[in-house]
Design brief:
The protein is mostly helical. It contains five helices and no strands. The longest helix is centred in the first third of the chain and has 15 residues.
């Protein structure tokens, strides 16, 4: 995302890299597959984060979580976050991982 950021906004990408990926992803306790599932869960629950959801769907695939696992995650969230957010997440899932 550094390459796609305007020069006057690169500091946001640097903060994101240092904080989220430097501070949190390097901690012990949870494996990377679990961390990616949790991150995706939180983004879905927040709503209005479709761009980040798509990025973390791909991130989940990159660490070995498949479409079936991600759909199960979204199904599990349904009673807690409601249909609109779940359906938006499934749309993002299908845009990133085609049938």
């Amino acid at each position: 995302m550094y390459q796609e950021s305007p020069e006057n906004q690169i500091h946001i990408q640097q903060y994101l890299s240092a904080n989220c990926f430097g501070d949190y992803y390097t901690r012990n306790g949870l494996d990377i597959k679990t961390r990616e599932l949790l991150t995706l869960s939180m983004l879905i629950a927040l709503g209005g984060t479709e761009s980040q959801i798509k990025g973390h769907v791909q991130g989940n695939v990159n660490v070995g979580n498949n479409k079936e696992t991600l759909l199960s995650l979204m199904t599990q969230l349904l009673p807690y976050i409601g249909y609109p957010r779940t359906l938006n997440a499934i749309k993002c899932l299908n845009e990133v991982i085609h049938e």
